[in-house]
Write a structure and sequence with these properties.
Blueprint lengths: L2 E19 L5 E20 L24 E5 L11 H13 L5 E6 L10 H16 L6 H11 L12 E4 L4 E4 L2 H7 L3 E6 L6 H10 L8 H13 L5 H4 L1 E2 L2 H7 L2 H13 L3 E3 L6 E4 L6 H12 L4 E6 L2
Helix pairs in contact: 1-2, 2-3, 9-10
The chain binds cytidine-5'-monophosphate (C5P).
The site of cytidine-5'-monophosphate has 11 residues, from strand 2 and helix 5.
Length: 314
Amino acid sequence: MSALEIFSPAKLNLFLAVTGRRADGFHELVSVVAPVMWGDTLTVVVRVENRRPRAGRREVGGKGRSPREEFSLECDDPAVPRDGTNLVLRAAELFRAATGWDRGARFVLTKRIPMGAGLGGGSSNGAMALRALNRLAGELLAPAALADLAGRLGSDCALFLHSGPVVMRGRGERVEPLPESGAARLRGRRVLIFKPSFGVATPWAYGRLAESAPGSYLPAPEAEARLVAWLADGDAVAEKLLFNNMESVAFAKFIALPALLERLHERFGVTARMSGSGSACFALLNADSPVAEITAAIREAWGASALVVGAQLQ
Ligand code: C5P
């Protein structure tokens, strides 16, 4: 096998409790996250030719190779960085360093997940690059080693190696499947994802949260207790799980976010929350939810440029 097309889903944080700040500047969290059946497409083509260093080229990484030139990325969205800062290329370099796999690859990314949305687009792309390379390389890494690599790539990457709802802890790298009693209440649930034309930068959002500490954090025992209570109550619907204490900072600056969520609740009775550090939000839909009217209300509030997309939780 020398080429692979892989689906790179968006994620939604159904429950996001940032519980405190760590000595390394990152934040501890407890989060229930689900990938959705909507996202980007990543195609990976393994280079077949032998690589030979060209005369005069500065060699990086020893063995006469220039690894930066061996992985390339194309993307249909010009706003997406295509240099070594992109998580796809960082994933490829990490994979090579961890395995010694010495082939090159061409990545082609078809982007649908917007940046600055809290939908994990870049993290998903990076995690799927790891998965694709591992498959193309003949499964050099066992699942645990791949998950470890994903955790090193970014806080939100490891969750994408799961195909259903998970609980994320630590800075996001500790991931385990949500117990089935809870997962069954989430899986397949229809959602409407919507994002205004502006985004929120994740480091800014965490920075603001830290400035208003400790009141902005939910202590870890409380976060765990809420989760345990929801899991134990088999009658508690998905709506009862929804929580995000990063909303406080985003909502204070961008009042268009809470204004719309409140309106949707008042007019249609739907429960909607922000995902991650925003600015994307999502509403849980029911069989009889008036999707066309909800969509019209979103566009009325946020303008025609707002992204509105229907999806299902994986
Ligand atoms: O790990 P990732 O690159 O996604 O994180 C982006 C930024 O978000 C970090 O540099 C940090 O400022 C913040 N962050 C954090 N705590 C986390 C995850 C992210 O403070 N658990």
